[in-house]
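Cross-check.
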Amino acid sequence: MDQTTGRSALFSGLLSVSEVYEGSEEIASARSLARTFLTDVQTVHGLPVSGRAMGMVQLVVSELVTNVIRYAPGPCLLTLEVQGGAVEVTVWDSSTALPAVLAPDAGRIGQHGLEIVMAVCQSFQVHREPVGKRITAAVGLADAPGGDRVGH
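Predicted model, tokenized:
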């Protein structure tokens, strides 16, 4: 447990942090957790984190946590974990309803969050759990030469 932040981080081949959120005012806190986590990944553990990855992870965290707070009852558990050159953003909630991923429609106002998440991530998965569901999206940490995303 990090005594300065009260957050836990594990290091034994993987880096991970988790936090629980319950209200819309905490969406900014979830983005801050992502930013702090990735800054530590880079400065403390020496792993490369591109500016693009920093922004995309915060975007993905914001979209996924917002959806949970908006559409699911109860808390949201956010976990960030570095694995295989990517950060996996996982949110768990207690709702059994799976998210609706709508087809791209430039004329639609709103409800583009999952469409955006899927466009910027290396992978996107939804798993039913004994209670609720878990959504995991992976964002590459480094850019390949020429600015392309690594692993994409």
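The CA atoms of residues 73 and 95 lie 7 Å apart. Strands lie at 10-11, 15-21, 76-83, 86-93, 123-128, 133-140. Passed to J.P. for a second look.
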